[in-house]
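Researcher: Quick sanity check before group meeting.
Model: Go ahead. Protein one:
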Amino acid sequence: MKEILNATALEKALKRLSHEIAERNENLADVVLLGVRTRGVLVAKRIQKCLQESEGVTLPLGILDVTLYRDDILTCDAELIGSEIDFSIEGKTVILCDDVLYTGRTVRAAISALFAHGSKMGRAAKIQLLEIVDRGHRELPFRADFIGKNLPTSSHEKVFVKFQETDGEEGVFLETENE
């Protein structure tokens, strides 16, 4: 496995992304973070912490489970953990946070989940997308508003964003199928 970003570079990317959020969103009081379960939650928490440190504001943070909205999981064994959003998104800018943007199917599922829960949470004014890595190979017409690293890959490669909390190490890694 090849290291693309070490822990320090990943931290710098997260800080840069948080600064970009502050620059693009004039009123941070109207911004909420939704982490796409599972790794997107860690990304959202890191972004929330960076914004607390740099801007002195704590953005609301929710967890979005997209399992039931995916079109590429055809099994009844899919584990549904559930979304955890205890605030309204009515009129807010929602920043969907995830680790790796690949085909765009997770993004589509996340937007479908948001729309499906709209009656309970309200209607967002705007949805923005934050990804640590954009590896290309889109099947659906989505692009991220905030990207930590563009990493062109082949279809025989996999990208992993690892966090200390879950993996015992930190960074972005590239693995070729033959490894």
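Researcher: Fine. The other one?
Model: Protein two, sequence then structure:
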Amino acid sequence: MKSWFWIAGLLLFCAGCSKDKYTSTPQISFKSFSSNVWFNTVSQFSPSLKIEVTDAEGDLGYIDEPTFIYVKNITVPPMKEDSFKLPDLSSLVRKNLKVEVSAEISSVLTSSNQPNRPYTDTLFFEVYVKDKAGNKSNVITTPEPFYLITE
């Protein structure tokens, strides 16, 4: 008889742990930086941030009604923030959308302007997206540092 209670308890626990991966509110997760080191005086490329986005309705990235990735530098004042248009995703499957997108982040990079050169600033960013319905995703903080080197 006791074993039935244990089995029933285990089944309830497992059922309670399952989460729906696709919700009406977009969900994002950090994937990577194209490079996490940038020399702000001589770089020939613009660094980018890659995130994964999931959304049940897939109402993201239309040309006629663009949606955006919002990125804020949360480390070095002034805490620059910018929005970056998502690419056109209208050709993808709309329901249960799961896609990786990138944003060039050079406009939110801020140097602390230390007099000693070269100097390295360690930056972190807050990131979120909004879908066409105005649903704001979870807000993530980049788990990896981004190094801005001023020469």
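Researcher: One line on it for the slide.
Model: The mean pLDDT is 84.
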